[in-house]
Amino acid sequence: MSDSELVCRKFKGNVGAPGVIVGLAYCIDRAKLRVTMRLVLPELVLLEKSRVHDAIEKSRAQLEAALGRDLQEDHRLILEAHLAWLADEYMIQEVLRHIETDRINAEWAVKKLFDGLKATLAGESERTRIERTQLFDEVAQRLIRNLMGVQDESLDGVPPGVVIVSHNISPGDMAHIDRERVVGLATDLGGPTSHSSILARGMELPTVVGLEHITSHVKTGDVLILDAQDGLVFVHPSLELIDEYQEKIRKRAARTAELLEMKDLPCVTADGVAVGLQVNIDLPEEMRLATNVGIRDIGLFRTEFIFLAKGGPASEDEQYEIYSRLLREVGRDHYATIRTLDMGYDKVLPELNQPGESNPAMGLRAIRFCLQREDIFKDQLRAMLRASVHGNLRIMVPMISCLSELRRAKGILEEVRQELELEGREFSDDVRLGIMIEVPSAVIIADILAAEVDFFSIGTNDLIQYTMAIDRENENVAYLYSPIHQAILRMIKQTVDAAREARIEVSMCGEMAGDLQLTMLLIGLGVDNLSMSPAATLKVKDLVRRIDMGEARALAGRVLGMKTRREIIALVKDTMHTRFPVEFRDHSWTI
Ligand code: PEP
Ligand code: MG
Fold this sequence. Notes:
This protein is α/β, with parallel strands linked by helices.
Protein backbone atom coordinates (compact mmCIF):
# COMPACT_ATOMS: atom_id res chain seq x y z
CA MET A 1 0.00 0.00 0.00
CA SER A 2 1.47 3.39 -0.89
CA ASP A 3 1.59 6.15 1.71
CA SER A 4 -1.21 8.02 -0.04
CA GLU A 5 -3.47 5.01 0.48
CA LEU A 6 -2.83 4.74 4.21
CA VAL A 7 -5.99 5.18 6.21
CA CYS A 8 -5.94 7.57 9.12
CA ARG A 9 -6.87 5.89 12.40
CA LYS A 10 -7.83 7.66 15.57
CA PHE A 11 -7.17 6.28 19.07
CA LYS A 12 -8.66 7.65 22.26
CA GLY A 13 -6.82 7.52 25.57
CA ASN A 14 -6.16 9.84 28.50
CA VAL A 15 -3.85 12.78 28.81
CA GLY A 16 -0.74 11.74 30.73
CA ALA A 17 1.09 15.05 30.20
CA PRO A 18 -0.32 17.92 28.13
CA GLY A 19 0.85 19.13 24.72
CA VAL A 20 0.21 18.65 21.00
CA ILE A 21 2.84 17.44 18.54
CA VAL A 22 3.33 15.80 15.15
CA GLY A 23 6.14 13.25 14.98
CA LEU A 24 7.35 9.89 13.78
CA ALA A 25 6.58 6.75 15.75
CA TYR A 26 9.39 4.85 17.39
CA CYS A 27 8.02 1.56 18.66
CA ILE A 28 9.59 -0.31 21.49
CA ASP A 29 8.36 -3.78 22.18
CA ARG A 30 9.45 -5.16 25.48
CA ALA A 31 7.31 -8.23 24.86
CA LYS A 32 9.64 -9.39 22.06
CA LEU A 33 11.86 -11.08 24.58
CA ARG A 34 10.79 -14.75 24.56
CA VAL A 35 12.45 -16.85 27.20
CA THR A 36 12.54 -20.61 26.83
CA MET A 37 13.56 -23.32 29.23
CA ARG A 38 16.56 -25.54 28.49
CA LEU A 39 17.82 -28.40 30.58
CA VAL A 40 21.49 -28.07 31.38
CA LEU A 41 23.93 -30.98 31.49
CA PRO A 42 25.52 -31.44 34.94
CA GLU A 43 28.98 -30.58 33.59
CA LEU A 44 27.65 -27.28 32.23
CA VAL A 45 26.03 -26.07 35.44
CA LEU A 46 29.13 -24.14 36.44
CA LEU A 47 29.27 -22.43 33.08
CA GLU A 48 25.59 -21.51 33.37
CA LYS A 49 26.25 -20.01 36.78
CA SER A 50 29.13 -17.94 35.48
CA ARG A 51 26.84 -16.56 32.78
CA VAL A 52 24.65 -15.22 35.59
CA HIS A 53 27.59 -13.41 37.16
CA ASP A 54 28.55 -11.94 33.78
CA ALA A 55 25.00 -10.75 33.14
CA ILE A 56 24.84 -9.14 36.57
CA GLU A 57 28.12 -7.34 35.90
CA LYS A 58 26.92 -6.14 32.49
CA SER A 59 23.60 -4.99 33.94
CA ARG A 60 25.38 -3.14 36.72
CA ALA A 61 27.69 -1.42 34.25
CA GLN A 62 24.69 -0.30 32.15
CA LEU A 63 22.91 1.10 35.18
CA GLU A 64 26.01 2.83 36.47
CA ALA A 65 26.54 4.40 33.06
CA ALA A 66 22.95 5.66 33.11
CA LEU A 67 23.42 6.99 36.64
CA GLY A 68 26.46 8.91 35.47
CA ARG A 69 24.20 11.10 33.34
CA ASP A 70 22.34 14.17 34.46
CA LEU A 71 19.16 12.54 35.77
CA GLN A 72 16.13 13.75 37.66
CA GLU A 73 16.28 12.77 41.31
CA ASP A 74 13.37 10.33 41.10
CA HIS A 75 14.88 8.64 38.05
CA ARG A 76 18.10 8.27 39.92
CA LEU A 77 16.26 6.65 42.83
CA ILE A 78 14.61 4.14 40.49
CA LEU A 79 17.87 3.13 38.87
CA GLU A 80 19.46 2.87 42.29
CA ALA A 81 16.64 0.53 43.32
CA HIS A 82 17.49 -1.64 40.27
CA LEU A 83 21.15 -1.62 41.23
CA ALA A 84 20.27 -2.62 44.77
CA TRP A 85 18.37 -5.62 43.43
CA LEU A 86 21.33 -6.67 41.31
CA ALA A 87 23.52 -6.60 44.40
CA ASP A 88 20.98 -8.54 46.45
CA GLU A 89 22.64 -11.73 47.73
CA TYR A 90 19.27 -13.48 48.08
CA MET A 91 18.43 -12.83 44.45
CA ILE A 92 21.81 -14.06 43.22
CA GLN A 93 21.84 -17.16 45.40
CA GLU A 94 18.28 -18.10 44.45
CA VAL A 95 19.04 -17.89 40.73
CA LEU A 96 22.15 -20.02 41.20
CA ARG A 97 20.18 -22.49 43.31
CA HIS A 98 17.50 -22.87 40.61
CA ILE A 99 20.21 -23.60 38.04
CA GLU A 100 21.85 -26.15 40.31
CA THR A 101 18.81 -28.00 41.60
CA ASP A 102 16.48 -27.78 38.61
CA ARG A 103 19.31 -28.02 36.01
CA ILE A 104 17.80 -25.22 34.04
CA ASN A 105 19.32 -22.46 31.94
CA ALA A 106 20.16 -19.11 33.52
CA GLU A 107 17.45 -17.20 31.63
CA TRP A 108 14.75 -19.55 32.90
CA ALA A 109 16.17 -19.43 36.43
CA VAL A 110 15.95 -15.62 36.43
CA LYS A 111 12.42 -15.75 35.08
CA LYS A 112 11.43 -18.37 37.65
CA LEU A 113 12.77 -16.32 40.54
CA PHE A 114 11.08 -13.07 39.52
CA ASP A 115 7.80 -14.80 38.62
CA GLY A 116 7.87 -16.24 42.14
CA LEU A 117 8.49 -12.82 43.64
CA LYS A 118 5.60 -11.38 41.65
CA ALA A 119 3.32 -14.14 42.94
CA THR A 120 3.99 -12.99 46.51
CA LEU A 121 2.36 -9.66 45.68
CA ALA A 122 -1.13 -11.14 45.41
CA GLY A 123 -2.33 -9.74 48.73
CA GLU A 124 -1.00 -6.23 48.10
CA SER A 125 -2.98 -3.23 46.95
CA GLU A 126 -3.32 -2.76 43.22
CA ARG A 127 -0.94 0.16 43.19
CA THR A 128 1.79 -1.74 45.06
CA ARG A 129 1.33 -4.74 42.81
CA ILE A 130 1.72 -2.59 39.71
CA GLU A 131 4.78 -0.80 41.01
CA ARG A 132 6.55 -3.88 42.35
CA THR A 133 5.71 -5.90 39.24
CA GLN A 134 7.19 -3.15 37.13
CA LEU A 135 10.36 -3.14 39.21
CA PHE A 136 10.73 -6.94 39.09
CA ASP A 137 10.02 -7.03 35.35
CA GLU A 138 12.60 -4.39 34.63
CA VAL A 139 15.36 -6.03 36.65
CA ALA A 140 14.53 -9.47 35.21
CA GLN A 141 14.31 -8.20 31.62
CA ARG A 142 17.64 -6.46 31.85
CA LEU A 143 19.31 -9.60 33.20
CA ILE A 144 17.68 -11.83 30.59
CA ARG A 145 18.55 -9.45 27.78
CA ASN A 146 22.16 -9.50 28.86
CA LEU A 147 22.11 -13.28 29.20
CA MET A 148 20.70 -13.64 25.69
CA GLY A 149 23.05 -11.06 24.28
CA VAL A 150 20.04 -9.11 23.03
CA GLN A 151 20.85 -5.47 22.59
CA ASP A 152 19.07 -3.33 25.11
CA GLU A 153 16.27 -1.53 23.35
CA SER A 154 17.94 1.53 24.61
CA LEU A 155 15.97 4.70 24.49
CA ASP A 156 19.23 6.65 24.50
CA GLY A 157 20.00 6.33 20.83
CA VAL A 158 16.60 7.13 19.33
CA PRO A 159 16.49 9.43 16.32
CA PRO A 160 15.35 13.02 16.88
CA GLY A 161 11.68 14.01 16.70
CA VAL A 162 10.18 10.67 17.65
CA VAL A 163 7.10 9.70 19.58
CA ILE A 164 7.81 6.60 21.66
CA VAL A 165 5.00 4.07 21.24
CA SER A 166 4.97 1.25 23.73
CA HIS A 167 2.60 -1.15 25.41
CA ASN A 168 3.63 0.32 28.72
CA ILE A 169 6.46 2.47 29.92
CA SER A 170 8.00 2.07 33.29
CA PRO A 171 9.50 4.76 35.47
CA GLY A 172 12.81 2.98 34.80
CA ASP A 173 12.35 3.42 31.03
CA MET A 174 11.50 7.06 31.58
CA ALA A 175 14.99 7.54 33.00
CA HIS A 176 16.40 6.65 29.57
CA ILE A 177 14.31 9.07 27.56
CA ASP A 178 16.36 11.79 25.96
CA ARG A 179 14.10 14.83 26.02
CA GLU A 180 16.13 16.47 23.25
CA ARG A 181 15.10 13.70 20.86
CA VAL A 182 11.84 12.29 22.11
CA VAL A 183 8.90 14.63 21.50
CA GLY A 184 6.05 12.52 22.80
CA LEU A 185 4.88 9.30 24.30
CA ALA A 186 1.91 7.02 23.58
CA THR A 187 1.17 3.86 25.54
CA ASP A 188 -1.47 1.13 25.57
CA LEU A 189 -1.59 1.04 29.36
CA GLY A 190 -1.43 3.59 32.17
CA GLY A 191 -3.62 6.33 33.56
CA PRO A 192 -3.23 10.05 34.24
CA THR A 193 -2.11 9.41 37.81
CA SER A 194 0.23 6.53 37.02
CA HIS A 195 3.78 7.08 37.95
CA SER A 196 5.12 7.48 34.43
CA SER A 197 2.49 10.11 33.62
CA ILE A 198 3.61 12.07 36.65
CA LEU A 199 7.21 11.80 35.46
CA ALA A 200 6.20 12.82 31.92
CA ARG A 201 4.54 15.95 33.28
CA GLY A 202 7.74 16.74 35.13
CA MET A 203 9.64 16.38 31.83
CA GLU A 204 6.99 18.39 29.94
CA LEU A 205 6.75 15.46 27.54
CA PRO A 206 3.34 15.36 25.80
CA THR A 207 1.90 11.95 26.65
CA VAL A 208 -1.27 10.02 25.92
CA VAL A 209 -1.78 6.87 27.98
CA GLY A 210 -4.41 4.13 28.14
CA LEU A 211 -4.72 3.81 24.35
CA GLU A 212 -5.41 0.08 24.82
CA HIS A 213 -4.02 -1.39 21.60
CA ILE A 214 -2.28 1.33 19.66
CA THR A 215 0.92 -0.75 19.55
CA SER A 216 -0.83 -3.26 17.26
CA HIS A 217 -1.51 -0.55 14.69
CA VAL A 218 1.70 1.44 14.56
CA LYS A 219 5.17 0.69 13.32
CA THR A 220 8.37 2.65 13.63
CA GLY A 221 8.44 5.50 11.12
CA ASP A 222 4.67 6.00 10.91
CA VAL A 223 3.54 9.61 11.09
CA LEU A 224 1.56 10.39 14.23
CA ILE A 225 -0.35 13.31 15.65
CA LEU A 226 -0.27 13.19 19.43
CA ASP A 227 -3.02 15.37 20.82
CA ALA A 228 -2.34 15.31 24.54
CA GLN A 229 -4.92 18.00 25.04
CA ASP A 230 -7.90 15.83 24.19
CA GLY A 231 -6.17 12.46 24.75
CA LEU A 232 -6.07 11.46 21.08
CA VAL A 233 -3.54 9.89 18.75
CA PHE A 234 -3.94 9.86 14.95
CA VAL A 235 -1.93 7.31 13.01
CA HIS A 236 -1.31 8.08 9.28
CA PRO A 237 -3.08 11.45 9.48
CA SER A 238 -4.09 13.10 6.24
CA LEU A 239 -2.19 16.18 5.11
CA GLU A 240 -5.28 18.27 5.88
CA LEU A 241 -5.36 16.97 9.44
CA ILE A 242 -1.64 17.62 9.85
CA ASP A 243 -2.21 21.19 8.61
CA GLU A 244 -5.09 21.60 11.05
CA TYR A 245 -2.92 20.40 13.92
CA GLN A 246 0.06 22.52 12.86
CA GLU A 247 -2.30 25.46 13.15
CA LYS A 248 -3.37 24.28 16.64
CA ILE A 249 0.28 23.93 17.64
CA ARG A 250 0.99 27.47 16.36
CA LYS A 251 -1.98 28.83 18.29
CA ARG A 252 -0.96 27.04 21.49
CA ALA A 253 2.58 28.35 21.14
CA ALA A 254 1.32 31.89 20.49
CA ARG A 255 -1.03 31.71 23.48
CA THR A 256 1.75 30.34 25.70
CA ALA A 257 4.09 33.13 24.54
CA GLU A 258 1.38 35.71 25.20
CA LEU A 259 0.73 34.30 28.67
CA LEU A 260 4.44 34.09 29.38
CA GLU A 261 4.69 37.83 28.96
CA MET A 262 2.68 38.05 32.16
CA LYS A 263 5.01 35.85 34.10
CA ASP A 264 6.57 38.71 36.06
CA LEU A 265 3.34 40.63 36.58
CA PRO A 266 1.75 40.42 40.02
CA CYS A 267 -1.32 38.29 40.55
CA VAL A 268 -3.73 41.03 41.64
CA THR A 269 -7.33 41.64 40.73
CA ALA A 270 -8.26 44.57 38.49
CA ASP A 271 -9.10 46.55 41.64
CA GLY A 272 -5.77 45.74 43.27
CA VAL A 273 -6.48 42.85 45.65
CA ALA A 274 -3.55 40.40 45.79
CA VAL A 275 -4.32 36.73 45.16
CA GLY A 276 -1.49 34.34 46.00
CA LEU A 277 -0.48 31.98 43.24
CA GLN A 278 1.48 28.88 44.24
CA VAL A 279 2.43 25.61 42.63
CA ASN A 280 1.79 21.99 43.51
CA ILE A 281 4.75 19.79 42.78
CA ASP A 282 5.22 16.08 43.19
CA LEU A 283 8.90 15.89 42.34
CA PRO A 284 11.62 18.43 43.17
CA GLU A 285 12.56 18.66 39.47
CA GLU A 286 9.17 20.19 38.70
CA MET A 287 10.36 23.36 40.42
CA ARG A 288 11.99 24.23 37.09
CA LEU A 289 8.52 24.35 35.49
CA ALA A 290 7.34 26.70 38.21
CA THR A 291 10.30 29.02 37.74
CA ASN A 292 9.65 29.08 33.98
CA VAL A 293 6.22 30.54 34.62
CA GLY A 294 7.47 32.98 37.23
CA ILE A 295 6.12 31.23 40.34
CA ARG A 296 8.40 30.47 43.25
CA ASP A 297 6.06 29.73 46.15
CA ILE A 298 5.22 26.08 46.61
CA GLY A 299 1.75 25.53 48.02
CA LEU A 300 2.06 21.75 48.11
CA PHE A 301 5.02 19.43 47.78
CA ARG A 302 3.77 15.85 48.01
CA THR A 303 6.58 13.95 49.71
CA GLU A 304 5.11 10.49 49.11
CA PHE A 305 6.62 10.38 45.65
CA ILE A 306 10.11 10.37 47.14
CA PHE A 307 9.20 7.11 48.85
CA LEU A 308 7.29 5.68 45.90
CA ALA A 309 10.06 6.40 43.40
CA LYS A 310 12.55 4.77 45.70
CA GLY A 311 10.27 1.82 46.42
CA GLY A 312 10.79 2.21 50.17
CA PRO A 313 11.31 4.74 52.94
CA ALA A 314 13.81 7.46 52.23
CA SER A 315 16.27 8.02 55.05
CA GLU A 316 16.44 11.24 57.05
CA ASP A 317 19.59 12.26 55.19
CA GLU A 318 18.12 11.49 51.75
CA GLN A 319 15.08 13.57 52.61
CA TYR A 320 17.24 16.32 54.06
CA GLU A 321 19.11 16.59 50.74
CA ILE A 322 15.88 16.82 48.74
CA TYR A 323 14.16 19.36 51.01
CA SER A 324 17.31 21.49 51.26
CA ARG A 325 17.69 21.57 47.49
CA LEU A 326 14.06 22.54 47.10
CA LEU A 327 14.28 25.34 49.68
CA ARG A 328 17.47 26.72 48.14
CA GLU A 329 15.84 26.70 44.72
CA VAL A 330 12.75 28.47 46.00
CA GLY A 331 14.93 31.18 47.55
CA ARG A 332 14.65 33.22 50.69
CA ASP A 333 11.99 35.58 49.39
CA HIS A 334 9.57 32.72 48.85
CA TYR A 335 8.44 29.62 50.67
CA ALA A 336 7.99 25.91 50.20
CA THR A 337 5.06 24.15 51.81
CA ILE A 338 6.23 20.60 52.32
CA ARG A 339 3.52 18.16 53.24
CA THR A 340 4.20 15.35 55.69
CA LEU A 341 3.69 11.87 54.28
CA ASP A 342 0.28 11.04 52.89
CA MET A 343 0.83 7.30 52.53
CA GLY A 344 -2.07 4.90 52.52
CA TYR A 345 -5.18 4.78 50.33
CA ASP A 346 -3.68 4.58 46.83
CA LYS A 347 -0.09 5.00 48.00
CA VAL A 348 1.08 1.81 49.60
CA LEU A 349 4.55 0.35 49.94
CA PRO A 350 5.21 -3.18 51.22
CA GLU A 351 8.35 -1.86 52.96
CA LEU A 352 6.15 0.25 55.21
CA ASN A 353 4.10 -2.76 56.36
CA GLN A 354 0.86 -0.93 55.77
CA PRO A 355 -2.10 -3.16 56.51
CA GLY A 356 -4.26 -4.43 53.66
CA GLU A 357 -7.51 -2.57 54.32
CA SER A 358 -10.94 -3.21 52.92
CA ASN A 359 -11.68 0.52 52.80
CA PRO A 360 -8.29 2.24 52.52
CA ALA A 361 -9.67 5.72 51.78
CA MET A 362 -11.12 5.64 55.28
CA GLY A 363 -8.18 3.77 56.71
CA LEU A 364 -4.67 4.25 57.99
CA ARG A 365 -3.73 7.13 55.76
CA ALA A 366 -1.63 10.31 55.99
CA ILE A 367 -1.33 11.66 59.56
CA ARG A 368 -3.03 8.54 60.93
CA PHE A 369 -0.25 6.43 59.46
CA CYS A 370 2.43 8.87 60.66
CA LEU A 371 1.11 8.81 64.21
CA GLN A 372 1.30 5.03 64.16
CA ARG A 373 4.76 5.02 62.56
CA GLU A 374 6.37 7.71 64.68
CA ASP A 375 9.81 6.50 63.56
CA ILE A 376 9.04 7.42 59.93
CA PHE A 377 7.25 10.61 60.94
CA LYS A 378 10.15 11.74 63.13
CA ASP A 379 12.73 11.02 60.41
CA GLN A 380 10.72 13.19 58.08
CA LEU A 381 10.26 16.03 60.55
CA ARG A 382 13.96 15.94 61.44
CA ALA A 383 14.86 16.15 57.75
CA MET A 384 12.45 19.04 57.22
CA LEU A 385 13.62 21.01 60.26
CA ARG A 386 17.29 20.49 59.42
CA ALA A 387 16.59 21.68 55.87
CA SER A 388 14.75 24.75 57.19
CA VAL A 389 18.02 26.70 57.51
CA HIS A 390 18.14 26.86 53.70
CA GLY A 391 14.97 28.85 53.16
CA ASN A 392 11.39 29.45 54.27
CA LEU A 393 9.74 26.22 55.21
CA ARG A 394 6.09 25.60 55.91
CA ILE A 395 5.18 22.19 57.18
CA MET A 396 1.72 20.98 56.24
CA VAL A 397 -0.07 18.01 57.79
CA PRO A 398 -2.66 16.17 55.69
CA MET A 399 -5.97 14.54 56.72
CA ILE A 400 -6.33 16.15 60.15
CA SER A 401 -9.78 15.21 61.40
CA CYS A 402 -9.71 16.21 65.07
CA LEU A 403 -7.87 18.42 67.49
CA SER A 404 -6.16 15.59 69.37
CA GLU A 405 -4.56 14.39 66.14
CA LEU A 406 -3.23 17.88 65.49
CA ARG A 407 -1.95 18.20 69.05
CA ARG A 408 -0.17 14.84 68.86
CA ALA A 409 1.47 15.88 65.60
CA LYS A 410 2.54 19.17 67.16
CA GLY A 411 3.85 17.31 70.21
CA ILE A 412 6.04 15.10 68.03
CA LEU A 413 7.28 18.13 66.11
CA GLU A 414 8.23 19.71 69.42
CA GLU A 415 10.05 16.54 70.53
CA VAL A 416 12.00 16.57 67.29
CA ARG A 417 12.93 20.21 67.82
CA GLN A 418 14.25 19.40 71.28
CA GLU A 419 16.20 16.40 70.00
CA LEU A 420 17.85 18.50 67.33
CA GLU A 421 18.66 21.20 69.83
CA LEU A 422 20.28 18.67 72.15
CA GLU A 423 22.32 17.35 69.24
CA GLY A 424 23.41 20.88 68.50
CA ARG A 425 21.86 20.81 65.03
CA GLU A 426 20.74 24.02 63.44
CA PHE A 427 17.19 24.69 62.31
CA SER A 428 15.09 27.76 61.69
CA ASP A 429 12.87 29.03 64.48
CA ASP A 430 10.48 30.46 61.92
CA VAL A 431 8.88 27.33 60.49
CA ARG A 432 5.14 27.72 60.00
CA LEU A 433 2.83 24.79 60.66
CA GLY A 434 -0.40 24.35 58.77
CA ILE A 435 -2.94 21.67 58.05
CA MET A 436 -4.88 20.50 55.07
CA ILE A 437 -8.61 20.88 55.40
CA GLU A 438 -9.82 17.87 53.50
CA VAL A 439 -11.99 15.94 55.93
CA PRO A 440 -15.50 17.31 56.65
CA SER A 441 -14.99 17.08 60.43
CA ALA A 442 -12.05 19.49 60.09
CA VAL A 443 -14.32 22.01 58.37
CA ILE A 444 -16.90 21.75 61.10
CA ILE A 445 -14.28 22.42 63.79
CA ALA A 446 -12.22 24.79 61.63
CA ASP A 447 -12.57 27.55 64.24
CA ILE A 448 -11.03 25.28 66.89
CA LEU A 449 -8.23 24.10 64.62
CA ALA A 450 -7.50 27.61 63.33
CA ALA A 451 -6.48 28.70 66.81
CA GLU A 452 -3.62 26.20 66.79
CA VAL A 453 -2.05 26.51 63.33
CA ASP A 454 -0.48 29.13 61.08
CA PHE A 455 -2.41 28.35 57.91
CA PHE A 456 -5.05 26.19 56.29
CA SER A 457 -4.94 24.64 52.84
CA ILE A 458 -8.17 23.22 51.47
CA GLY A 459 -7.67 19.88 49.77
CA THR A 460 -10.73 19.68 47.61
CA ASN A 461 -9.77 16.37 45.99
CA ASP A 462 -10.36 14.61 49.28
CA LEU A 463 -12.86 17.05 50.73
CA ILE A 464 -15.23 16.26 47.85
CA GLN A 465 -14.61 12.51 48.18
CA TYR A 466 -15.30 12.47 51.91
CA THR A 467 -18.19 14.92 51.86
CA MET A 468 -20.01 13.19 49.05
CA ALA A 469 -19.09 9.69 50.31
CA ILE A 470 -17.62 8.69 46.97
CA ASP A 471 -14.27 7.08 46.28
CA ARG A 472 -12.47 9.59 44.05
CA GLU A 473 -10.98 6.67 42.04
CA ASN A 474 -14.33 4.99 41.41
CA GLU A 475 -15.73 5.86 37.98
CA ASN A 476 -19.19 4.48 38.87
CA VAL A 477 -19.82 7.31 41.27
CA ALA A 478 -17.73 9.93 39.46
CA TYR A 479 -20.92 11.76 38.44
CA LEU A 480 -21.27 12.83 42.09
CA TYR A 481 -17.76 14.31 42.18
CA SER A 482 -18.71 17.93 41.89
CA PRO A 483 -16.73 20.94 43.13
CA ILE A 484 -19.79 23.16 42.93
CA HIS A 485 -22.09 21.08 45.08
CA GLN A 486 -23.58 23.48 47.61
CA ALA A 487 -22.10 21.36 50.43
CA ILE A 488 -18.59 21.89 49.07
CA LEU A 489 -19.05 25.61 48.49
CA ARG A 490 -20.42 26.07 52.00
CA MET A 491 -17.48 24.12 53.41
CA ILE A 492 -15.04 26.37 51.60
CA LYS A 493 -16.86 29.42 52.91
CA GLN A 494 -16.90 28.05 56.46
CA THR A 495 -13.16 27.30 56.31
CA VAL A 496 -12.41 30.78 54.97
CA ASP A 497 -14.55 32.40 57.70
CA ALA A 498 -12.77 30.43 60.44
CA ALA A 499 -9.37 31.39 59.01
CA ARG A 500 -10.36 35.07 58.79
CA GLU A 501 -11.58 35.07 62.37
CA ALA A 502 -8.28 33.56 63.57
CA ARG A 503 -6.29 35.82 61.20
CA ILE A 504 -4.55 32.97 59.47
CA GLU A 505 -4.07 32.44 55.74
CA VAL A 506 -6.25 30.07 53.78
CA SER A 507 -5.06 28.43 50.58
CA MET A 508 -6.53 25.83 48.29
CA CYS A 509 -4.33 23.11 46.80
CA GLY A 510 -6.88 20.63 45.46
CA GLU A 511 -7.42 20.42 41.68
CA MET A 512 -10.33 22.86 42.04
CA ALA A 513 -7.81 25.68 42.65
CA GLY A 514 -6.50 25.47 39.08
CA ASP A 515 -9.90 25.17 37.46
CA LEU A 516 -10.29 28.27 35.30
CA GLN A 517 -14.06 27.89 35.31
CA LEU A 518 -14.08 28.54 39.07
CA THR A 519 -11.40 31.20 39.48
CA MET A 520 -13.86 34.06 39.96
CA LEU A 521 -16.00 32.07 42.36
CA LEU A 522 -13.03 30.99 44.49
CA ILE A 523 -11.55 34.41 44.92
CA GLY A 524 -15.04 35.69 45.61
CA LEU A 525 -15.36 33.13 48.39
CA GLY A 526 -12.22 34.65 49.92
CA VAL A 527 -9.54 32.01 49.34
CA ASP A 528 -6.21 33.85 49.76
CA ASN A 529 -3.91 31.58 47.75
CA LEU A 530 -4.53 29.20 44.87
CA SER A 531 -2.04 26.38 44.44
CA MET A 532 -2.00 24.37 41.21
CA SER A 533 0.17 22.66 38.60
CA PRO A 534 2.69 25.10 37.07
CA ALA A 535 1.05 24.78 33.65
CA ALA A 536 -2.25 26.19 34.95
CA THR A 537 -0.86 29.26 36.71
CA LEU A 538 -0.59 31.75 33.86
CA LYS A 539 -4.14 31.21 32.62
CA VAL A 540 -5.46 31.68 36.15
CA LYS A 541 -3.36 34.80 36.64
CA ASP A 542 -4.64 36.19 33.35
CA LEU A 543 -8.23 35.90 34.62
CA VAL A 544 -7.49 37.16 38.11
CA ARG A 545 -5.93 40.32 36.68
CA ARG A 546 -9.13 41.05 34.77
CA ILE A 547 -11.57 40.27 37.59
CA ASP A 548 -12.87 42.91 39.95
CA MET A 549 -13.03 41.67 43.55
CA GLY A 550 -16.45 43.29 43.88
CA GLU A 551 -17.91 41.24 41.04
CA ALA A 552 -16.24 38.05 42.37
CA ARG A 553 -17.78 38.57 45.81
CA ALA A 554 -21.16 39.28 44.23
CA LEU A 555 -20.95 36.04 42.24
CA ALA A 556 -19.99 34.05 45.35
CA GLY A 557 -22.82 35.65 47.32
CA ARG A 558 -25.39 34.78 44.66
CA VAL A 559 -24.09 31.22 44.31
CA LEU A 560 -24.21 30.63 48.06
CA GLY A 561 -27.86 31.65 48.03
CA MET A 562 -28.78 29.04 45.42
CA LYS A 563 -30.28 25.65 46.09
CA THR A 564 -29.51 23.50 43.09
CA ARG A 565 -26.37 22.56 41.22
CA ARG A 566 -28.14 23.34 37.97
CA GLU A 567 -28.74 26.95 39.01
CA ILE A 568 -25.13 27.33 40.11
CA ILE A 569 -23.77 25.91 36.86
CA ALA A 570 -26.01 28.20 34.82
CA LEU A 571 -24.88 31.31 36.70
CA VAL A 572 -21.17 30.44 36.62
CA LYS A 573 -21.33 29.62 32.91
CA ASP A 574 -23.24 32.75 32.09
CA THR A 575 -20.89 34.95 34.10
CA MET A 576 -17.72 33.50 32.62
CA HIS A 577 -19.11 33.59 29.05
CA THR A 578 -20.10 37.21 29.44
CA ARG A 579 -16.89 38.35 31.09
CA PHE A 580 -14.40 36.23 29.12
CA PRO A 581 -16.05 35.49 25.78
CA VAL A 582 -12.79 34.61 24.02
CA GLU A 583 -11.45 32.24 26.68
CA PHE A 584 -14.74 30.40 27.10
CA ARG A 585 -15.91 30.47 23.46
CA ASP A 586 -15.10 26.84 22.56
CA HIS A 587 -14.90 25.66 26.11
CA SER A 588 -16.15 22.19 27.03
CA TRP A 589 -17.57 22.73 30.52
CA THR A 590 -16.64 20.18 33.13
CA ILE A 591 -18.38 21.45 36.28
C1 PEP B 1 -6.42 17.11 48.03
O1 PEP B 1 -6.93 16.15 48.63
O2 PEP B 1 -7.09 18.02 47.50
C2 PEP B 1 -4.96 17.20 47.89
C3 PEP B 1 -4.38 18.25 47.35
O3 PEP B 1 -4.23 16.14 48.30
P1 PEP B 1 -4.04 14.79 47.46
O4 PEP B 1 -4.58 15.02 46.08
O5 PEP B 1 -2.58 14.53 47.48
O6 PEP B 1 -4.83 13.81 48.26
MG1 MG C 1 -5.72 14.94 49.90
